[in-house]
Amino acid sequence: MAATKGNQFWKQRSKHGRDKLFKSPTMLWNAACEYFSWCDENPWMKVEQLKKPMVVEDNEGNEVVESMVHLPTARPYSIGGLCLYLNCNSAFFRQFKKSLKKADKDFSTVISRIEDTIATQQFEGATVGAYNANIISRTLGLADNQNVKHDGIPETPAAKQVMIFNGQKVEF
């Protein structure tokens, strides 16, 4: 059964809207730093094929031939990863950033610093070869785009083909 039209039940609520995820900009920055530390302490494990298999001992002391090795690889920081770490989604994070008022300039400063830290880490990682430069450049909006305008009219006239047929010059 629906509420009657013109009711004022909404005024009886003790609060309106969702609570902020963080009560202060400092708490947000500390949580972001915690995420950055977690990324640094938990690298991706890249599996590589060995050119020459090695004989190693397993946990029980038996000799085993290993042909694969797990190499720790740097984990890139990302807004998506930060949001998962903070238990929110990226849409909530974007909306929170967009809805900030002038009174919330401290939150705005912290969010900008977080985004700058993520972008710098991704860019520097791609620069030194830790990350795929193509993927990072697209993520950061640095892709080299070449827009070629084509209106159907060639810039230079097409070369004419000439053939001699029965002693006469024929162009086509």
Global structural class: alpha+beta
Uncertain segments: none
Straight-line N-to-C gap = 81 Å
Which strand order does the major sheet show?
A: 1-2
Helix content: 25-40%
How many helices? The count is: 5
Provide the β-strand percentage band. 15-25%
Report the count of strand segments. 4
The main β sheet shows up as: 2 strands, antiparallel
Approximate shape: flat
Order of helices and strands: HEEHHHHEE
Global mean pLDDT: 80
Radius of gyration over all CA atoms, rounded: 30 Å
Description of the structure:
With 172 residues, the protein is an alpha+beta fold. Helices cover 37% and strands 19% of the residues. The strands form two sheets. A two-stranded antiparallel sheet has the order 1-2. Strands 3-4 form a two-stranded antiparallel ribbon. The chain is flat and about 100 Å long.
Give the key terms.
two-stranded antiparallel ribbon; 5 helices; 172 residues; single chain; flat; 4 strands; alpha+beta
Topology, pairings included?
Layout: H1 25-41, E1 44-57, E2 63-73, H2 79-86, H3 90-98, H4 105-127, H5 133-139, E3 162-165, E4 168-171
Antiparallel strand pairs: 1-2, 3-4
Short note summarizing the structure:
By secondary structure, the chain is α+β, with helices and mostly antiparallel strands. 37% of the residues lie in helices and 19% in strands.
